[in-house]
Amino acid sequence: MGKADFLSPKAIGNRIKAKGLQKLRWYCQMCQKQCRDENGFKCHCMSESHQRQLLLASENPYQFLNYFSEEFKSDFLELLRRRFGTKRVHNNIVYNEYISHREHVHMNSTQWETLTDFTKWLGREGYCKVDETPKGWYVQYIDRDPETIRRQEELERKKKQDMDDEERSAKFIEEQVRRGREGKEPEEEPVFTELKRMNEEEKVAFNLDIALAGPSKTRYNQSRSLINALKAAASAKRKESSHSGDSKDKKKKSALDEIIEMEEQKKKSVRSDNWIQANIVVKVITKKLGEKYYKKKAVIREVQGKYTAVVKMIDSGDKLKLDQSHLETVIPAPGKRVLIVNGQYKDTEAILEGINEHKFSATLTLDSGRMKGKTVEGIAYEDFSKLA
Q1: CA nearest 352: which of 383, 328, 327?
Q2: Among residues 51, 16, 56, 63, which one has the least CA distance to residue 36?
Q3: Could you report the per-residue pLDDT of 339-361, keeping only the tens digit for each?
Q4: CB within 8 A of 316, min separation 6: which ones?
Q5: What is the side-by-side strand order in the sheet with 88-90?
Q6: Which residues contact 194 (CB under 8 A, 6 or more apart)?
Q7: Given its phi and psi angles, is residue 343 left (phi above 0), alpha (psi -120 to 50 degrees) or beta?
Q8: Nearest 5°: phi and psi at 188?
Q9: CA atoms of 276 and 158, how far apart (whole Å)
Q10: Residue 83 CA: distances (Å) to CA of 79, 86, 87, 135, 299
Q11: Are 321 and 53 in contact, with CB atoms under 8 Å apart?
Q12: Is pTM, for the whole model, over 0.85?
């Protein structure tokens, strides 16, 4: 029976079904393949590609389990941070939105059996605030972004500085009041007498000493002027500090290129544990796949994560999904182009000039980047590979 026409109702229905979500029990996480029904899943499990993936997984099962768990956790937290922020939300709402993406990592391939276990783990590890209610588990994302923490620290520092200024002003006023009281001569205690009128026709008169109010008002004005002067001096000091900071920044900007170069060299001097790159030639060194692929050369077509590569065999054209530990670099003939995959000059293209067999190293001439044309000696065999 021939294949259905592209515009036939059956073909259109098949494409519509393939777009949506399928049953979880017919999904193979190792091969990342979704089957339509039980018969298709059974045929996939008997296929040669599936058997190869199972052989690789049986060699180091915890590595694949940890990889899928890390992918699930990072994608889930990224969705929670981007979609809901720091709001309190039901965990099932986040999970339903997460699985709506067809290419998501399924939970049955991770270390958590249920969504409740995963939610409790998030609370224990400090990624979220979790609490259980009669309606289920709720999660609240904890934002640990360095930029957010820096803004909070700046606000607290500014608030503390304002409080320090207010306390300093209050202490200054108290000190002025204390000095004023110490410099004032002790007054005689007034003697209160009964008001008596010697003559009924005599008028009652009060003598208010205005001269006493003058010095107190003068002292008050002096204290206010001193406070204003102190505030003006503090503001001028802050302006000077800000100007000095700007001048320092300008001095730093004048040597910006040198600083950037030093930082780049510092980063590149640190060796990384993953070296696989796309479009380089590698050699398969694992015997788990049989003699057909052992010691055969392949080209890396895609890098998944840090340590997994999809390679295409040069001889047979077969595509395999291999771990970094199952591959090694390929050294071409002198004069060929290579890619440096580790060390100080990582991700730099170069030309192979010669090989030192005693030191297991090579001499390369850089062919890209700022140092183009520079000759580098002592590059180890495992730090470069032939370009495809």
Answers
A1: 383
A2: 16
A3: 999 888 888 999 999 998 888 89
A4: 292
A5: 88-90, 136-141, 128-133
A6: none
A7: left
A8: -70, 140
A9: 48
A10: 6, 9, 10, 21, 39
A11: yes
A12: no
